Amino acid sequence: MAKTARTARKTGTKRTEAKEEPKEFVVSIRLTSDRKWSRPLRMQEAERIRKESSLTKDVFSHVVDMTVKRMDARIVENAPLEGLRAERVKLVEQLVKRSREVYGDKGKADRWMVRPSPYLHNKAPADLLGSLQGIAEVMTELERIDASAFA
Prior knowledge:
By secondary structure, the chain is mostly helical. The protein has helices spanning about 45-55, 55-65, 70-75, 85-105, 105-115, 130-150, and strands at about 10, 15, 40, 80.
């Protein structure tokens, strides 16, 4: 993140200040898992992750960016999941694991995942899992909850 310096310039008799640029907030998410992510993620493994996370097929179809019907067909043939689709599945797995750590209970974490939050523009965390930005927003909210629980 670049720092913005405030400088004053002399122009005649008046002093003007350079305007500050808006500040950016960057969220860094690090993948950690027992699974070996160097090998390709296959659809049957992604389905196992979905079931462990208690996400509905409808929600998970947004994570893998395909229809439920296509997702079911690819599970049957155990097709590999490529690129950003695989990355989103990995991040969602981490997010669900972290939510269970924060709430200390699978049921509470699962309920939090489907309940709208004012901090997420009145959307449920599960509704935002279809993009990397949405996953980052949900992870940020989860970390905020964790920090305020011990404040």
